[in-house]
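Schema walk-through. Below, the input block comes first and the output block second. Nothing else is stored per chain. Lengths vary across the set, and this one has 122 residues.
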Amino acid sequence: MDNNKNCRSAENERRIDHLVNIVEKQTRTERHLEQHADISSSPENLEHARELQEERQQEIENLKNKIAYGDNYSNNYKDNTEKRLIYTEGYLNHNADHMDEKTFRNAKEKQEHRKEQLDSLR
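--- output ---
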């Protein structure tokens, strides 16, 4: 039992180190975006940076929850994400004709993010 506790402790320590690293990267990128958004020659570069920031934020939340609630959290998170993916896909299939273009596009984009999240949890 004591060995299991040590393993969990070491694992959480690595998670915390990784969490700190991600937060530092996110902070540097955010500061850079704020200071240099007006000089970027490519809107694609700005969009890519924002996508990275969103991925980092999701990873931060995932790590925080794993540290706080343990490894079982990711299984619940994975199950819930799969359910949201399936439910939203059905919703979009049935209601796409009644949705405005922007809302539909945003929902499809969120679906892509959910698929990416599921891939990272597997």
